[in-house]
Amino acid sequence: MIEQRNNRHKPIRRVTVYAASSGALSDGYLAAASRAGEALARAGLAIVYGGGNTGLMGAMANSALEHGAEVHGVVPGFLRQLEVTHEGLTSLEVVEDMRQRKHLMLYRSDAVVTLPGGCGTYEEFFEALTLKRLGQWLGPIVLLNTNGFYTGLDGFMRHAIREKFMAEQHASMWSMVDEPEGIVDALGGAPAWGEDALSIATVGGG
Q1: Domain spans, the chain
Q2: Is residue 139 helix, strand or coil?
Q3: Low-confidence ranges of the chain (pLDDT < 70)
Q4: CATH number of 14-189
Q5: Residue 73 in contact with residue 51, Cβ under 8 Å?
């Protein structure tokens, strides 16, 4: 469990991890994912993720399990073969489609950690970010910037803020760390975010 320094009424007990399932990634990405799983486990956190056993998904889950974490997978039935479902998890829930998977993964957790990934990972990250902007989900969101993977994305979102497509306050919706060992501190130190977020969702409104 992590006590949030800026929001002590909402301790973090369970974290959703978004990550790639690709089996073609370099060892550096896999090692960082493994370290992320270890860091979350050592912090006493339960993990929810997409249920895969390959790529960064598998590296993170295997390491977290090895270090004593509960790891819960959520997978749509049609992806069980494509993503090679992990059979050694604490629990595995098979759902109907991607929409249900994303909903359950997000709303069963107190925070989000996004490892490098492809378009599916980006979609999950941006859905969490959008719901946070609208005050519908309020937890910390952390990007793991392995090998500078998310530097461009972070810069793009800050460009959107400068161009007034997002408000200055929205820059505090996410944080980014370069090393897996920084994830836990980033989660605990995330700025408070409340249901009144809807009042600043529209830039220049009111």
Answers
A1: 14-189
A2: coil
A3: 1-9, 81-83, 195-206
A4: 3.40.50.450
A5: yes
